Amino acid sequence: MGLFGIFSSSADEGDKRAQEVRAGAVAPLRAERQKCWEARDGYFACLDANGIVDALKDEKKAAKACKSEAADFERDCAAQWVTYFKKWRVQDIQKKARLKELEAQGANKMDISTDFTERK
């Protein structure tokens, strides 16, 4: 290790770990998952504010409206998670709309939660 290696090793290790998490080479730690969820929630809030449901289908509109939030989301989450969460969002919105339709038709409501974003 040279003289300059002393000053850059911890920053380089952090960048390397972030790249490994992003690529799916290592599992994210609890703090890294929390950071990902926060970035996801910020991105989804931006999509909501701009009336965008499907960020994959409306990719250009989402990129334009939520550029910084998307950058944070993609930086802080594993690539596979980003795609998964974008698909999950569409399914969750469709599920909630269908449940609302069923309730309007008189279906009995059951108290069951399948929403993983509700942390206790």
UniProtKB/TrEMBL annotation:
Cellular component terms (Gene Ontology): mitochondrial intermembrane space; nucleus
Subcellular location: Cytoplasm; Mitochondrion intermembrane space; Nucleus
InterPro entries: COA6_fun (IPR048281), COX6B-like (IPR048280), CX6/COA6-like_sf (IPR036549)
Keyword set includes Disulfide bond: yes
Record-annotated membrane-spanning stretches: none
Biological process terms in GO annotation: mitochondrial respiratory chain complex IV assembly
Keywords recorded for this protein, A-Z: Cytoplasm, Disulfide bond, Mitochondrion, Nucleus
Record keyword Mitochondrion present: yes
Protein family per UniProt: Belongs to the cytochrome c oxidase subunit 6B family.
Protein name as annotated: Cytochrome oxidase c subunit VIb-domain-containing protein
